[in-house]
Design brief:
Chain lengths: 221, 230
């Protein structure tokens, strides 16, 4: 048994930890942006698009939601180069994370869209609004407001999900941790520090999402 | 250049590794369910410091990535002087992590039962544990069931990260087969289908339960947590 926890040898590598944190935030932000975009397209495509689109979108959602992110990550990282896409591990990570979040976002947004009463759309039609404006103002914005709490919970999970992309050697916080373990041989202490960093990051992100929600949806539904 | 092609032997290897995935998921489900029940009971208990303790537990396990928790359990064992064993570390981590999520699911269901039920039980002279066991939980079970089955899907998927501390379950078997065959589309496609075959029936069942129990509720239940951590 080792005598005591020693954090000193790890904290001298603060610059590495901070760079890892920066990469983690980068991965999270990029994949949240792309994933949400996929989600909006998927949800709108399923609810308003042509019928032949709805089946493939449903398959995508079910397939992604019922398989592990780690396998999706491996699939993207190892398969795409065979088709001529040479990806860095960080790009592969963003692709896999975005596809993953996209499925959840599609499902969450679709639930919001389906909760919009049909009369609202009828009313908008009778006011003479066009299809695009109805989808945008009468459906999407109220739906987004209704599902914003679920969506931001999913974003938080996405931030924590980025931790596994170290498995394909993308250089985020967990990968930095694994390197530090090899350098310092203080594995337990390293992961305690990493856990604290993630915890603070997640709490900060929760506050941020709550703030954004208040700004974006100021009026009551 | 590949050493071997993806054939029946490789498929068999993957299918055999699947039993460890299933076993780990069952252990995590049983352990997490038991811990979750205790945590949920403590979360609604009359003693405030106990409630805070349970809240802190949930905060930690829901607020940090499960992979880091897994590494902490694995390397923490060696810090305490034990030889780290991936099976023990994975079983402990998944149970504790599942306990936090189940705790929240169960608490949501317990809190959806009208206050009057507690008061009636108190009037009958029931104390806390007895009220919970005989009055509240039997009614809350139908609320707990759909998200519980839904969370089982989550558990099956999450077991894949046990491969990262060296446990040879389905995900690790997949990377091993990929290394010798170098046919990632075949290998990870097949593995995706195996995971899908495990998870989809559970998802469908959870959806069915949700629709079935959606009607006739006394109070609206908080929407079950949507979870996709890994």
């Amino acid at each position: 048994m080792q005598t005591a926890l020693q954090f000193g040898p790890i904290l001298v590598h603060l610059d590495l930890l901070l760079r890892g944190l920066e990469k983690t935030i980068q991965l999270a932000v990029m994949s949240i942006l792309f994933g949400t975009a996929i989600g909006v397209l998927g949800a709108v495509g399923r609810s308003f698009g042509p019928r032949f689109l709805s089946w493939p979108i449903a398959c995508y959602v079910e397939l992604i939601r019922n398989t592990p992110l780690l396998i999706q990550l491996y699939f993207v990282f190892f398969s795409l180069p065979l088709f001529g896409f040479k990806l860095s591990s960080n790009t592969a990570a963003i692709v896999a994370l975005s596809i993953h979040l996209g499925a959840y976002a599609t499902e969450i947004l679709r639930a919001g869209i389906e909760a919009i009463p049909g009369e609202q759309i009828e009313a908008a039609k009778s006011l003479g609004l066009g299809r695009y404006r109805i989808i945008r103002h009468v459906v999407l914005v109220p739906a987004a407001r209704a599902v914003y709490p679920s969506l931001s919970a999913q974003f938080i999970l996405q931030i924590m999900g980025t931790s596994i992309v170290g498995a394909i050697a993308a250089e985020e916080l967990t990968a930095v941790a694994n390197n530090l373990v090899m350098q310092t041989f203080r594995s337990f202490e390293v992961y305690i520090i990493i856990a604290i960093i993630y915890f603070v990051l997640v709490q900060a992100a929760s506050l941020l999402f709550a703030g954004i929600g208040k700004l974006m949806f100021r009026w009551k539904a | 250049m590949s050493l071997r092609d993806f054939g029946p032997n490789e498929l068999m290897f993957l299918l055999l590794a699947t039993r460890w995935t299933i076993l780990l998921a069952l252990v995590a489900f049983a352990g997490g369910g038991l811990i979750g029940l205790v945590v949920a009971a403590i979360r609604v208990a009359p003693t405030r410091p106990l409630r805070w303790l349970a809240a802190g537990y949930i905060q930690f396990f829901m607020g940090t990535p499960i992979l880091i928790q897994l590494f902490m359990a694995y390397y923490g064992a060696s810090f305490l002087g034990y030889r780290p064993d991936p099976w023990v570390a994975a079983a402990v981590t998944f149970s504790l992590n599942g306990g936090a999520f189940f705790g929240e699911i169960f608490r949501g269901a317990i809190e959806a039962i009208p206050r009057g039920q507690w008061e009636a039980a108190t009037a009958l002279g029931f104390r806390f544990v007895r009220t919970l066991r005989l009055v509240i939980i039997p009614q809350a079970i139908r609320l707990m069931l759909p998200p519980t089955v839904g969370f089982m899907v989550q558990i099956v998927k999450t077991t894949s990260i046990a491969s990262l501390i060296g446990l040879t379950e389905l995900a690790r078997a997949a990377t091993q087969v990929n290394t010798v065959t170098f046919q990632p589309v075949m290998v990870f496609g097949t593995v995706s289908l195996i995971y899908f075959a495990l998870c989809w029936p559970l998802s469908l069942y959870a959806g069915y339960l949700e629709r079935r129990f959606a009607t006739g509720m006394t109070r609206k239940v908080e929407k079950p947590l949507v979870m996709s951590a890994v």
